[in-house]
Design brief:
Strand order of the largest sheet: 1-2-4-5-6-3-8-11-10-9-7
Distance between the termini: 33 Å
Helix content: 10-25%
Number of helices: 7
Strand content: 35-45%
Order of helices and strands: EHEHHEEEEEHHHHEEEE
Structural class: alpha+beta
Mean pLDDT: 91
Radius of gyration: 19 Å
């Protein structure tokens, strides 16, 4: 396994130039490389964390919010894709699901070892599904782990089961969380400055149109983070699972509906006008 270690998170700006090159070169690879990239001593920059908390709606606490290490790991994912024998065009992949398991709270004062590696490729009705597995350790103990699922669109032999029932939607009950969010046109650019994710589909309507979108769309990791922030205080250990559905166009207005039952909180983010789903998720206390 061609492992690499870093003392700090690589600069994402330089990686995006390599992303552009990946769209024009012919790629002969068929499998994911057995590679893992690790930042050995990640220290939390409080100013950067506070900026992330502000745009995602979190309070400034002494512990990290669920997806902060996820945006740090995404830069490692990008580095893996551009530096290793990655089999798919990078600009064509779509983030369709993301899970986070927190085993114990991570302090802003902790020194963290953050690693990302490729998972597996599996068939999907719209192409191929592949994963990244990211792990955070403190004092050699795993405290946080995330799996990011990406779709590489293309030919598929998977037969779609049209008889499969539609996913059940939440019905309103007393005590549910209901909140609307107004998303400004520049949200993608503002979040990109914090997250380092400068994917063109998020930055401006003109760059998004080049990839088939009528307007820029919000980052999926922002919509997930903003939704979870609205759930309130989280348990010290939990499993968080979100599936991304339809894109959120900017500017726009979305509605969050969340419902808690015992240890499980189910939530969905929908279009405020027509109710079409943007994401659905569950938060399960451990």
């Amino acid at each position: 396994m061609p492992n690499r270690t870093f003392e700090s998170i690589p600069n994402p700006i330089g990686l995006f130039a390599k992303v552009a090159l990946s769209t024009i070169k012919k790629n002969p690879y068929k499998t994911l490389p057995e590679a893992e990239y690790t930042v050995t001593k990640l220290k939390i920059d409080r100013e950067h964390l506070n900026a992330y908390n502000k745009i995602c709606g979190y309070p400034n606490l002494e512990t990290l919010p669920p997806l902060y290490l996820g945006i740090r790991a995404m830069t490692l994912q990008l580095a893996l894709m551009v530096n290793e024998a990655f089999p798919f065009p990078i600009l064509g992949i779509v983030h369709i699901r993301n899970t986070v398991e927190q085993f114990k709270p991570v302090s802003v004062n902790d020194t963290i070892q953050l690693s990302t590696r490729f998972g597996e490729i599996t068939p999907h009705e719209k192409g191929k599904l592949f994963t990244f597995i990211s792990t955070a350790k403190v004092n050699n103990e795993v405290v946080w782990e995330s799996v990011a699922y990406y779709l590489a669109r293309g030919k598929s032999d998977v037969v779609v089961d049209k008889s499969k029932p539609k996913e059940a939607r939440l019905t309103q009950k007393a005590g549910d969380i209901n909140v609307d969010f107004d998303l400004p046109e520049d949200l993608g650019r503002r979040y990109a400055k914090v997250s380092g994710d400068f994917n063109f589909i998020h930055i401006h309507k003109f760059t998004a149109q080049a990839f088939g979108f009528k307007r820029a769309i919000a980052h999926g990791m922002w919509t997930k983070a903003r939704s979870v922030a609205a759930l309130g205080e989280l348990p010290p250990a939990y499993f968080l699972d979100v599936q991304f559905k339809l894109p959120v166009f900017l500017p726009g207005k979305v509605h969050l509906h969340a419902q808690k039952k015992a240890k499980v909180t189910t939530f969905e983010l929908t279009d405020a006008k027509d109710g079409k789903p943007h994401l659905v998720g569950t938060l399960t206390a451990r």
